[in-house]
Amino acid sequence: MKIGEIWSQLGSIMASIMFVYAMFDKFFPPHLRRYFLKYTNKFSTLFYPYIQIKFHELSGEKLKHSETYKTIQTYLSANSSQSARRLKAEVIKDSQNPLVLSMDDNQEIVDEFNGIKVWWSANHTTSKSQSFSFFPTSDEKRFLTLTFHKRNRDVITTSYIQHVLEEGKAITTKNRQLKLYTNNPSKEWMRYMSTKWSHTSFEHPACFETLAMEPEKKEEIINDLLKFKEGKEYYTKVGKAWKRGYLLFGPPGTGKSTMISAIANFMNYDVYDLELTVVKDNNELKRLLIETSNKSIIVIEDIDCSLNLTGQRKMKKENDDDENEEKKKLVDKAKGEEKNESKLTLSGLLNFIDGIWSACGAERIIIFTTNFVDKLDPALIRRGRMDKHIEMSYCSYEAFKVLARNYLDVESHDELFPVIGKLLEDTNMTPADVAENLMPKSITEDFETCLKKLIQSLEEAKKKLEEEEAKKKTEEKVEEARLKEEKDKQKIAQEEENVKANENSKENDKENGLIH
Ligand SMILES: Nc1ncnc2c1ncn2[C@@H]1O[C@H](COP(=O)(O)OP(=O)(O)OP(=O)(O)O)[C@@H](O)[C@H]1O
Ligand SMILES: [Mg+2]
C-alpha cells in the first residue's frame, strides 16, 4: 500500500475520532477537550515520520486565486497525465495547449528530487455555507498536499519547492499563447477605449531554422538572444536596464519582418507593433510604453518613414553654432513643442527607448527596421540604444539552401545547386523572390522543375543586370564623349581667343609705332 494511502486511512480514522469529538462536543467540558486534542496530536507526531505542506487554491483575506497553487498545478500536470489514474480536464485560455490534464481529487502522484521521494495529492474540503443566500453555494476549498519524510525537511522546503515553482513558471511561459499588440485603432470605437493597445493571438510560424541567412550570422544572433534572456544578474551587476535594441536593415523582401517573428517565437515574447504615425504626442508614447508588459518585443517598422524625426534633430544641432535669426525661430518653436509635449519628437522617442523606458520594465527588446539605414539620425541608432545592427542582405548560397530545404525538402543537387550558387553570386535576388520561385505552383511541379524555374529567373535577373550595366556604361561613355567634346570646344575657343588677343596686341603695338 502507498504511503499516502496509509496515511489517508489514518487520516480517516482521525477524522472519525474528530467527528465523535464533535458529536460529543457539548457533553465534554472544555479542559477535557483540550487534553483529548493534545494527546491525539502527540500520538500522530510520534508515529508519523512525514511532514505535510498544504497549498490552498484561494489565499489571502480576499480569497484570491493563488498563483503558487496554479504554478504547482502546472508543474504537476506534466507528471500527473502519465501517473495519475483519474484525471481532470480543464480548458485554459491564452495557452498553446488549451486542454490541461491534472490529477483529480484524492489522487496521488509521486515525484522525485535529488533521489528524495515526495508525494503530492489533490484534496478538497466542503462545508455548507451558514449564511442565508438566495443562491446557496457549498463552500469548497481545494488544496494540494505535499508529503515528505521529516529527515528531508531542509531540502524540500528550500530547494525542492523553489524548483517546482521555477519549473511550473517555465512551463506556463512555454505554453503561453503569444500575443500581437497594435496601437493602430482600426475601428473608430477603439479610440475611446481605456487601453491604447488592442491585441490578437500571434501565430506566425517563422523560426530560426526556416530563416534563410548565413549560418554564422544566425548563430551569432541566437547566442546574443540567449545571453540576453539569461542576463538578469549580469544586467543588475553592471547597472544597466535589462533591455536590448536591434536595428534590422536591408532591401525589401530580405526577411526583416520574418526575423522579428522568429525572435518572438524563439524568446516566447509578445510583440508590440508600434505604429508611430498614429501616436499623437510624447505623452501618448509614454502611456503606450507603460502599458506594455515585460518579456516583450516592441517593434517600430520602417523607422525612416515613420516620422520626420531626423529634421527636428538637425535643426536643434544647427542652433548651437548658427546665429541665423530665422533658424533660431524655427528651433525655438521645435523646442517649445518638445517642452509642451504637444507633438511626437525625436527626443520623445529617445526617452521612450532609454529614459523612462529603462525604469518601467525589464526583459524587453526593441527592434527598428529600415530599408535605408543611412537616412537615420545617428543618435537614434547609436550603440546602447540599438545595440546590434543586423544587415539583412540579398540571398546567398547558404540562405538558398535553407529555402530549398523549407520549400522543397531538398538538401542538395549535384547538377543544379552549383549553377544556382554561381548565379546568386552574379545577381541581387532577395530571399522573398527566391522563395517565390521555389514554391511549387501545382501538384505536378516536382522539385527539379522548381529549381529550374529559379535558374531561369536568376538568368533573367542576371541578363537584366548586365543590360542595365551595359546601358549605364554606354550612358557613361556618351557623357564622357560629351564632356570631352565640350572640353575640346572650350579649348578651341580659348585658342581662338588667344590668337585674337595676340593679333589685337600686335595691331595696337603697330598703331603706337612700336612695330614698323
Ligand atoms: N531571410 C528569409 N528567410 C526566409 N524567408 C524569407 C526571408 N526573407 C524573405 N522571406 C520570405 O519573403 C517574405 C517577405 O519577407 P519579409 O516581409 O520578412 O521582408 P522584409 O525585409 O520585412 O521586407 P520589407 O522591407 O518590405 O518590409 C516572407 O513572408 C518570407 O516568406
Ligand atoms: Mg517588413
Key phrases:
single chain; 516 residues; alpha/beta; Rossmann fold; 3 domains; 7-stranded mixed sheet; 4-stranded antiparallel sheet; 18 helices; 52% helix; binds adenosine-5'-triphosphate; binds magnesium ion
Structure, described:
It catalyses: ATP + H2O = ADP + phosphate + H(+). It is a single chain. With 516 residues, this protein is of the alpha/beta class. It has three domains: 49-128 and 138-175, no CATH class; 180-391, P-loop containing nucleotide triphosphate hydrolases (Rossmann fold); 411-516. The protein has helices spanning 3-23, 30-47, 67-83, 153-175, 215-229, 232-238, 256-267, 282-290, 303-306, 309-321, 325-340, 346-354, 356-359, 378-381, 397-408, 416-426, 431-438, 447-511, and strands at 50-56, 58-59, 64-65, 87-91, 99-103, 108-113, 116-128, 138-149, 179-182, 198-201, 243-249, 270-273, 296-300, 364-370, 388-391. Strands 10-9-12-13-14-11-15 form a seven-stranded mixed sheet. Helix 10 (309-321) crosses helix 11 (325-340), helix 15 (397-408) runs parallel beside helix 17 and helix 16 runs parallel beside helix 18. The longest helix has 65 residues, at 447-511. It is elongated and about 155 Å long. The model is unreliable at 310-323 and 336-341 (pLDDT under 50). Magnesium ion (MG) is lined by residues 256-257, 301, 369.
